[in-house]
Each structure stands twice: as structure tokens, then as C-alpha cells.
Amino acid sequence: MQVAAQTPTPALTPTVTLNAPAATSITTPAVDALAENPYGLAALWAQGDWVAKTTLLLLLIMSLASWYVLISKLVAQNRMKTQTRAAEQTLANAKNLREGADALSPDSPYHVMMNGVLEDVRMHPSVASQVDLNTWAAQSIERTVGAVQSQSQNGLAVLATVGSTAPFVGLFGTVWGIYNALVKIGASGQASIDKVAGPVGEALIMTAIGLAVAVPAVLGYNWLVRRNKTNMDGVRNFGSNLHTTLLRLAEKTNSPSK
């Protein structure tokens, strides 16, 4: 009797599950964005001496002064345009000059002009033998026009000064910064390009700041001067119309009634 050979059952091999290593994220730091810039404006202030800091503060003051003048003069010129339109309408619609003067705002130069003319006309009889009414009134109007023109030019000298001197102030800061940088490089004995380029480039920031201060001042000065000319043309035209109206009313008053 034959016994069938039994095939031996293979032993179960224990299965070992190996965990895959976690994917390691490779992050490259943005050196330009994260690393501190050793040659920036902050470094210039931190490492600069009292001359460099004084130069930076002077440029800051000049910039603030020029922007203050630019904005304040722009507001004043816009107000002058509004007052010119109101004065022209008032002169055209008023029944008499006194009513027109009272209708204008007390802070308007046209209110001052009309009140001054009326006061001079009231005083004219005392000098009528020496000066005729035409010349007397014209002188009164010209005085007011001159005062308005002088007031409209206030502050423009600040813009002209800043525009002409700020680049040289910045250049002075650059020369001083380069001088100090070269002295430090000479003392350290390292004259490689990486040692020279940083401090020199840092000093050149002064020139850039000086130009950034000067350019708006020059452009603002030219713009305000052109707007001033337009406003003063309006003031002179109003003065001419006021002079003509005054003489016409005086002629009606002095002409004998028929």
C-alpha cells in the first residue's frame, strides 16, 4: 500500500512592512528676501557718523518743507480761482459797488480791493485838485493787485532753494561716505571688490536721495509759477473791470440830470 507523499506546507514568512521614509521637503531660503541687507538705508543710518546723519536729516527736512509748500500753495491757488469766479459774478450782478463788496467773503482779496477803492473814492475830494479820480482809483487797485501778487509768491523761494541745493547736499553726503569707506577699507587692508562695492554703493544712496528731493521741488515750482500767472491775470482783469465800473458810476453821478 503506497502512501501519497504529502507536499510540505511552506512556512509562512512574516511580512514586515517598511514605512517609506517621509518625503523630505527641500526648501531653499530666499536669500535676497530674508537675509538682512547690510548696505541699505538702515545700515547707512546705523553705521554713519554725525555728518552723514545730519545730511540725511537735512534732506528729510528739505523734502518735508517742499511738499508742505507745494500742497499749501495748490490749495490756496484753487481757493483763488473760486474767489475770482465769485467776484466776477458779484461785480456783474450787484446794484452798486458797496453791495458787491459786502457780498464777497471777508477773506477774499477782491473784497479788500473793492473796499479799498470805495474808501479812496470817499477821500478823493480832498485831493481832487491834485489827482483826478481815474488816476486815484487806478493807484488804489494797483496797490491791491501788487499785494495779492506778493502773497501768491510766498513759499516759492523754498521750492527754488530745495530744487537747486538738494542734489549738492546729497552729493556732499556721497563724497563724505566714500571718504569714510575708503579710510575703513585702507585700515582693514582688504581691497577686494566685495569690500569696496558695498560701502561705496551705500554712500551713493545719498545722491539718489538728493535727486529724489530736488526733482519734485523743481517740477512743483514751475507748475505753481504757471498757475500763479493764470490767477494773477484773473486778478488784473477784475481790477480793470472794477476801474471801468467805478468811472462809469462816477460819470453818471456827476452828469447833470436832464
How many helices? The count is 8
- Shape descriptor reads rod-shaped
Helix content: over 70%
- What radius of gyration results from the CA coordinates? 40 Å
Major β-sheet annotation: none
- Total beta-strand segments: 0
Strand content: under 5%
End-to-end separation: 170 Å
Unreliable stretches covering 5 or more consecutive residues: 1-7, 9-35
For this entry, give a set of tags.
disordered N terminus; 258 residues; mainly alpha
Structure description:
- This protein is mainly α.
- The chain has a domain at 39-95 and 155-250.
- Helices cover 74% and strands 0% of the residues.
- The chain has 8 helices and no strands.
- The protein starts with 30 loop residues before the first helix and ends with a helix.
Quick description:
With 258 residues, the chain is mainly α. The protein has helices at residues 31-34, 41-47, 50-93, 97-103, 109-123, 133-152, 156-188, 193-254. The radius of gyration is 40 Å and the shape is rod-shaped.
List the helices and strands and how they pair.
Elements: H1 31-34, H2 41-47, H3 50-93, H4 97-103, H5 109-123, H6 133-152, H7 156-188, H8 193-254
Helix pairs in contact: 3-4, 3-7, 3-8, 4-5, 5-6, 6-8, 7-8
